[in-house]
């Protein structure tokens, strides 16, 4: 639920982008004489998910929208065109601006001292992290986080530079050993991707300027860099020249202090073997 949908009638297709998407699915499905269970088979999902999407209660995965366009004869790609709007308004209002900037960025530089950033989390790791915040709909929160990661595999994706504290790799409080092994393997694969760079800030590095707060710097083909700072209860975007310059300098220092990429990859292997075996 977002601020726009508080008190709204979920059966009203004009109440939200999700409700509109769901109403269109129901109309097309009923016109074909398909039951929810039968359409679920076509969309590789269950009856419950179809029902909740039609009622505007769940965020549709991209594959669901693709199935709609494939199954409904007069869709003409309509559902895949509607899907980004439904997804956009599933994000908290304060986060939408950042997601739009992330989509346009050519370079994304991220630092986090406590967690793997959402942009590269596995589904299992994301579920454990999000569960701790007790969201109203955990499944939706996981879905939109996973869908956001498509920015890294789109045509002409941004270059990602990721610096993580060693503590992030050694944490044993996010799920079980299997969850952490899966997440570290995801990071290991990222380290092997030529387009991206992963560095680990070792424990012995001690305090580093900018090393206590999670933040990211986004660069674009046109226009100045912006900074996103994680916070509670909301994050915020900074575009003013002076603080952006300070964040850039802080990130440069983090990169200089962190282990080089090859040694960072070796440390991931070591921790996977010794801590999360």
Helix content: 40-55%
Shape: globular
Main sheet: strand order: 3-2-1-4-5-6
Alpha-beta classification:
alpha/beta
Give the CA-CA distance, first to last residue: 38 Å
Query: Can you tell me the CATH class of the largest domain?
Result: Alpha Beta
CATH architecture call of the largest domain: 2-Layer Sandwich
Whole-number count of domains: 2
Helix and strand string, N-terminal first? Answer: HHHHHHEHHEHHEEEEHH
Instruction: Say how many strands there are.
Output: 6
| Main sheet overview | 6 strands, mixed
Strand content: 5-15%
Which consecutive residue ranges, at least 5 long each, have pLDDT under 50? none
Taking all Cα atoms into account, the compactness measure Rg is 21 Å
Mean pLDDT: 92
Q: Note the total helix count.
A: 12
Provide a quick synopsis of the model:
This protein is an alpha/beta fold. The chain contains twelve helices and six strands.
Could you walk me through the main structural features you see in this protein, from its secondary elements to its overall organization?
The protein is of the alpha/beta class and 277 residues long. The protein folds into two domains: 86 residues, 434 Repressor (Amino-terminal Domain) (Orthogonal Bundle), CATH 1.10.260.40; 182 residues, Endonuclease, Chain A, CATH 3.30.870. Helices cover 49% and strands 11% of the residues. The protein has a six-stranded mixed β-sheet, sandwiched between helices. The longest helix is centred in the C-terminal third of the chain and has 17 residues. The protein is globular. The relative contact order is 0.11.
């Amino acid at each position: 639920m977002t601020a726009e949908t508080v008190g709204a009638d979920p059966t009203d297709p004009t109440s939200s982008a999700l409700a509109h998407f769901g109403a269109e699915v129901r109309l097309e499905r009923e016109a074909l004489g398909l039951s929810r269970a039968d359409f679920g088979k076509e969309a590789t999902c269950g009856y419950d998910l179809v029902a909740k999407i039609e009622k505007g209660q769940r965020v549709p995965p991209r594959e669901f929208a693709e199935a709609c366009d494939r199954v409904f004869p007069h869709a003409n790609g309509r559902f895949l065109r509607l899907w980004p709007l439904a997804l956009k308004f599933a994000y908290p209002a304060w986060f939408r601006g950042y997601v739009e900037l992330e989509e346009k960025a050519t370079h994304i530089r991220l630092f986090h001292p406590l967690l793997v950033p959402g942009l590269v989390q596995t589904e299992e790791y994301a579920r454990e992290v999000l569960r701790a915040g007790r969201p109203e709909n955990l499944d939706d929160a996981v879905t939109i986080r996973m869908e956001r990661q498509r920015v890294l595999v789109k045509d002409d994706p941004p270059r990602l530079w990721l610096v993580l504290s060693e503590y992030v790799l050694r944490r044993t409080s996010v799920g079980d050993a299997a969850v952490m092994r899966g997440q570290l393997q995801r990071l290991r694969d990222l380290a092997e991707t030529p387009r991206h760079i992963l560095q680990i800030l070792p424990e012995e590095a001690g305090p580093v300027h900018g090393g206590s707060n999670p933040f990211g710097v986004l660069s674009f083909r046109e226009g100045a860099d912006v900074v996103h700072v994680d916070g509670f209860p909301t994050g915020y975007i900074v575009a003013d020249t002076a603080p952006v310059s300070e964040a850039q300098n802080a990130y440069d220092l983090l990169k200089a202090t962190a282990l080089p990429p090859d040694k960072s990859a070796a440390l991931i292997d070591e921790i996977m073997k010794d801590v999360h075996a």
